[in-house]
Each structure stands twice: as structure tokens, then as C-alpha cells.
Design brief:
It contains 13 helices and 8 strands. With 356 residues, it is an alpha/beta fold. The chain folds into 2 domains: 5-106, de novo design (two linked rop proteins) (Up-down Bundle); 112-355, 3-Layer(aba) Sandwich (Rossmann fold). Strands 1-2-4-3-5-6-7-8 form an 8-stranded mixed sheet, with helices on both faces. Strand 7, helix 12 (310-319) and strand 8 form a beta-alpha-beta unit. Helix 10 (258-267) packs across helix 11. The longest helix is centred in the first third of the chain and has 21 residues, at 41-61. The N and C termini lie far apart (51 Å).
Length: 356
């Protein structure tokens, strides 16, 4: 155990997530030993990230391009976790964010599955995304899974989950919406997910390699609130997946770790925590879920300590016959401790529904 209970709390919650998204378990052991105070969290994670970044640079010089890309991708994930809950220190956050973006985009160069960085016009600025396709061939237009991160996640963290869809012949668009990742600076957390999805789908028509008429939405954690909200507001979406998301965020937020509550305040562009807690009550599907017309898959872990499984049951009840609910008894938040179950389940289900 560290000297700081905040460090222990975050590791206890998120070690399965770190491993499932690309952090080496041996590095996790070292990080647990090294980080004794929350104030050191970002810098020590960044030190580990830098080692993998340098390894990628060396391998590139040796013309080991695949090894270099793998190292840069791992570095990007580490830089992300350096800052994922560190929003209260904007200076360290922005440094880690810029290094994450640099490493991820290095990893994207000449990748086996083509990856494009997109800036999608939205309101008076842009929201940021990556579009991946299974191949570069233009002989077919791929259906698209739009994948949404949660409160402290970002589009780069979704790479491993995106692979499951890519492997099944689907394109993916991993998105930083309002209050998320690169888009958070310009757009606070918002309920305008009809506008967001409308802008995204409109933008996809400019990409002949994908089929903008066969598009669905997938979300994890708070992104799993945004995905059914999007489906309720944008009728062009043909399928929806909600993985461990809240049905009514107001009562959920006060039960989350304080660092997560404060990050919600920051991402909402609120001055006080009380303002943020009040705003959280507006994030509800109570009057909206009934408008969802597309097939919807709800996934939950019965052992989720961040968002209770009852939130998924409420969403199932609201959508009724159009929804399927899968509960993994051993699953934690987002079922990160059983990625070999939730990733193929969600990708197979999506492929089947979008084909229909």
C-alpha cells in the first residue's frame, strides 16, 4: 500500500482497465511500488511512458517498424493514464496529453489497418476522432461503429476495443465528444448528442470507404450514457451498445471517487462541485430512452463498484423489447477484468445487427 489512500483507491478500481487496454502487468507492479503520493501520479506514469516512447524511436532507427509502432502505442496509453484523472493540474495534464497524441499518431503511421485523424465540424469549432477501416481497399464500403469513451477516458484508450470491430470487417470511429479528450477544451459535457451524432454521420459521407447509412454507436462508462442518448436523438443510428453506463447520473456521481467528481466538474466547465452535482441530474435517460428505435445491447458487470448494475436494468426496462441485457456476474466496471468476454460479445452483436 502507498502512503496516499487516493493512490490505493485508483489502483484498486482500475488495474484491470490498465491491463486490458495495453499496460504491461510488469509495469503495473513497478508503478504500484513507485507511486506513494497522488501528486506524483502523472510524473511517474509519464516516466514509464517515456521509456516505451524511446524504445519505439530506437526500433524505428533499426527499421523495425512494427515493433516501433507497438512501443509508441503502449507509450500513448501510459501517457493517457498519467493524466486521465489529473485534470486538477492543467499544466501536467496538457504535457501528458500532447505526448499521448504524439505517440499515438506515430503509431498510426503505416499501420496495418488504415487510421485517419479527423476534425469534424461542430458548432463553431471541431470535435476530434480517428477513423479506422479493416483494409485500404475501395471495393466495399464498411459499416461503422462509433465508439465513445467515458468521463476520464479518451479516443486513444479505445484502440484495443476498436480492434475487435476491425477484426470483424467493421470500420470504427473513436470519438472525443463534448467534455472528452481533445474536444474537452472547447466543448463542455453536453446533452446535445443528437447534434454531435448528426455532425459525425454527415462527415462520414465524405469518406467513400465507409457506408454512412450503416452506422451504430457504442459507449463505455459515461460514454454508455451518451450512446443510448445519441440513439434516442439521432434516428440514423442503426444499433446501440451501452457498456456499464448510468441511466440517471445524478444519484451516481456523488458515490464516485472524489477525483472523478472533480473531473466531472472540470469537464462540465463548472466553477464549483455543487454546480457540477446539480448539473449531473440533467444527465438522465428517464424521458428519452423510450425514443430509442434501434436494437440496443446493454452490458454490465454485477461487480461494478462505480456504476451499479441497477442502472442497466433501468435502461432495459425503459427500452423494453428492443433491448438485450447481458450481466456478467464476475464483471467489474466496463467488464475490464473479462475483456475476452465483453469485446467479442459487443463486436459480434454489432456486426449481426448492422448487417440486418
Amino acid at each position: 500500500m502507498s502512503k496516499d489512500p487516493q493512490v490505493d483507491l485508483i489502483f484498486n478500481h482500475f488495474i484491470p482497465r490498465y491491463i486490458a487496454t495495453g499496460v504491461d502487468p510488469n509495469d503495473i507492479q513497478r508503478l504500484v511500488q513507485r507511486i506513494e503520493n497522488w501528486s506524483d501520479w502523472c510524473s511517474i506514469w509519464s516516466d514509464e511512458a517515456h521509456k516505451h516512447e524511446l524504445h519505439g524511436n530506437r526500433e524505428k532507427d533499426l527499421n523495425h517498424h512494427l515493433t516501433a509502432r507497438e512501443s509508441w502505442l503502449r507509450a500513448a496509453i501510459y501517457y493517457h493514464y498519467a493524466k486521465h484523472l489529473f485534470g486538477a493540474d492543467p499544466q501536467q495534464f496538457e504535457v501528458a496529453q500532447s505526448k499521448m497524441l504524439k505517440c499515438y499518431n506515430l503509431a498510426a503511421q503505416d499501420a496495418k489497418t488504415p487510421l485517419q485523424k479527423l476534425k469534424i465540424p461542430y458548432k463553431d469549432d471541431f470535435i476530434h476522432a480517428y477513423l479506422r477501416t479493416p483494409t485500404a481497399e475501395q471495393s466495399q464500403a464498411f459499416p461503422v461503429a462509433i465508439i465513445l469513451p467515458g468521463l476520464d477516458a479518451c479516443k486513444e484508450e479505445l484502440h484495443s476495443w476498436s480492434n475487435s470491430f476491425i477484426d470483424r470487417g467493421l470500420a470504427t470511429l473513436t470519438l472525443d465528444g463534448p467534455g472528452q479528450g481533445e474536444s474537452a477544451q472547447h466543448f463542455p459535457i453536453s446533452l446535445d448528442w443528437g447534434g454531435v451524432m448528426g455532425a459525425v454521420i454527415d462527415a462520414l459521407y465524405a469518406h467513400p470507404e465507409v457506408d454512412a447509412k450503416r452506422v451504430g454507436v457504442v459507449g463505455q462508462s459515461l460514454g454508455a450514457f451518451y450512446s443510448p442518448l445519441s440513439a434516442a436523438l439521432e434516428p440514423r443510428l442503426k444499433a446501440c451498445i451501452s457498456n456499464c453506463g448510468p441511466f440517471d447520473f445524478g444519484p451516481v456521481l456523488p458515490q464516485m471517487p472524489m477525483v472523478s467528481q472533480d473531473l466531472f466538474r472540470i469537464r462540465s466547465h463548472m466553477n464549483t462541485l455543487n454546480q457540477a452535482l446539480e448539473f449531473a441530474h440533467e444527465l438522465t435517460l428517464k424521458s428519452k430512452a423510450q425514443s430509442i428505435a434501434c436494437p440496443t445491447l446493454i452490458v454490465f458487470g454485477a461487480g461494478d463498484k462505480i456504476i451499479p448494475v441497477s442502472e442497466g436494468q433501468l435502461l432495459k426496462q425503459a427500452i423494453a423489447s428492443k433491448a438485450e441485457l447481458v450481466i456478467y456476474e464476475e464483471g467489474n466496471h466496463v467488464c475490464f477484468n473479462i475483456p475476452y468476454k465483453f469485446r467479442p460479445l459487443t463486436a459480434d452483436w454489432f456486426a449481426q445487427k448492422i448487417a440486418a
